[in-house]
Amino acid sequence: MGESRAVMKQKSMTITSWGRNRNAEMTALRPERLSAVTAALRQPGVGTGTIAYGDGRNYGDLAMRQNGRVVLTRRLNRILSFEKDTGLVSVEPGVTFRELHSFASERGYLVPVVPGTAFVTLGGGVASDIHGKNQDTQGCLGDHIEWLDLVVASGDVIRVSRSEHPELFSATIGGCGLTGVISAIGLRLRQLKANAVSVEEWRVKDLDSFFDLMHQHRTSSTYTVGWVDALQKGRSLGRGIFQAAEPVFSDGFSPSTSNRKIPFTCPDATLNRASVQAFNSIYYRRVPKNGRSRLVGYEAFHHPLDAISDWNRLYGKSGFFQFQCVLPDESAAIGIRRLLERISGAQAASFLAVLKTFGKEGLGDLSFPRPGVTLSLDIPARGGGREFVESLDALTLDHGGRVYLAKDATLTAERFAMMYPKLDKFRETLSRYDPDCVFDSDLAQRLKIRPTLS
Question: Kind of pairing, strands 69-72 and 50-53?
């Protein structure tokens, strides 16, 4: 009874994307138990425009709806059960990957797939079907999910899985939060004791060499990732650092826990061609010419930017766009070359350009990964930043690729429809379980996933 009354306590809140390029005025609900979520959706006159929101690490407009309602899930953060023999863990959606890693590692397990930041919630991870540095061999988060409990538009809780309501299961994984509010997740952990990562690093002189290394290690190494100096041109196009790594347990190993904080929003001009070029040059030379081997903390390897709190402030008040695409293997070499030529030619100031391979198609209707090569980088939003990212979207489509919706803020509805072949199937599932569009977002409106609403 108290929880039902508590859910009525709503407040106005400005939701801002992690890229600081979008915001929305919303009515916020902060439930602490499942009953509060179901009560909120059963209130008379719920209307449209409700979306769940985790820890705020979405780069664009996926987790916001102008003048809508946002369900803040961070307090739904309990680990509900754990089967030590099978590794099956049941968690609420507000548990972060950092919290789950801490729980799992103490018991000799690892989260099988983790994103680039540990601050993402498991609910957000499901909604984006996140991938990590081991997508070639372990796929996406959705590949390791046994079941989901989902609060749908009616306020009812439905358990979905590969055998129960399978169409709703595949729509929810990677479904951008549009099928409902996830209330519990059944995830199978990987039984492996590890507190560090053994990393092999090489300097890479150009893009052709990068592709050679990526394909050499894509299935023989557990983790692979590359950093690219996106300002390089000509013979040095694609210059960077490639890493292949394995999880290990090392007695007595004590990883660095240093943390820096960006205390204020930097002026827009802080990240310019000169400053990024200087950083990239230093970063490239930190790896010896002949490469090196080193032991790195497990979390530091997977989540390097988490060591810098509020790093998104580096891009100034205008913010930034994060562009991430995947191109199929057959067009990846030429397509990635064309993208890097466009980026270096425009002198787009990005110190975070990442190149990885994918080996598996995602399970969800709107899952991003497919076999191929993915490129991601940050583009300052000032000036013509939006138009420039839109040109990268178009170039991606020209080479048969698609853009990651969890990072996107610029894609058009027409390009989106051509990139995601299961869109009609996804829409049919939404129409069946949420005909009144209770769940909606600015992303869904921009991409015309849902009917246009006022």
Answer: parallel
pLDDT digits (tens, 9 = 90+) for 101-153: 999 999 999 999 999 999 999 999 999 999 999 999 999 999 999 999 999 99
Query: Are 96 and 152 in a shared domain?
Result: yes
Residues 6+ apart with CB under 8 A from 106: none
Integer CA distances (angstroms), 91 to 64, 176, 231, 239, 292, in order: 24, 19, 42, 41, 39
CA–CA dist 134, 121 (Å, integer):
19
**Residue scoring higher pLDDT (308 or 195):** 195
Same domain, 254 and 221: yes
Instruction: Give every CB contact of residue 118 below 8 A, 6+ residues apart in sequence.
Output: 96, 97, 98, 101, 299, 302, 303, 306
Residues 170, 204 within the same domain: no
Residues 186 and 202 in one domain: no
Give the pLDDT score at 264. Answer: 46
Using one digit for the tens of pLDDT, what is the confidence trace for 359-395? 999 999 999 999 999 999 999 888 889 999 999 999 9
Q: Quick one: residue 31, left, alpha or beta (phi over 0 = left, psi -120 to 50 = alpha)?
A: beta
- The letter for the amino acid at 211 is F
Characterize 254-282 residue by residue with b for buried, 16 or more Cβ atoms within 10 angstroms of its Cβ, and e for exposed: ebeeeeeeeeebeebeebeeeebbeebee
Range of the domain at 370: 196-410
Domain count, the chain: 2
CATH number at residue 138: 3.30.465.10
DSSP code for 47:
-
Q: How far is CA 77 from CA 121, 129, 191, in A?
A: 9, 19, 23
User: Which phi and psi angles does 182 have, rounded to 5°?
Assistant: -70, 130
- The Cβ of residue 330 has, within 10 Å, a number of other Cβ atoms equal to 12
**DSSP line for 78-94:** -EEEEETTTTEEEE-TT
Is 219 in the same domain as 317?
Answer: yes
What is the C-alpha end-to-end distance of the chain, expressed in Å?
Answer: 34
Question: What number is the average pLDDT over the span 338-367?
Answer: 90
Residues 326, 244, single domain; the answer is: yes
Report which of residues 335 and 255 the model is more confident about: 335
Which phi and psi (to 5°) does residue 334 adopt? Answer: -75, -35
Please, what's the largest Cα pairwise distance for the chain?
A: 68
Q: Are residues 204 and 92 in the same domain?
A: no
- The DSSP 8-state label assigned to residue 267 in this structure reads P
- 184 and 213 inside one domain: no
Q: Is residue 330 part of a domain?
A: yes
Dist CA 255 CA 304 (whole Å)? 12
pLDDT in the model for residue 268: 54
Kindly report the CATH number assigned to the domain that includes residue 242: 3.40.462.10
* pLDDT given for residue 5 in this prediction: 44
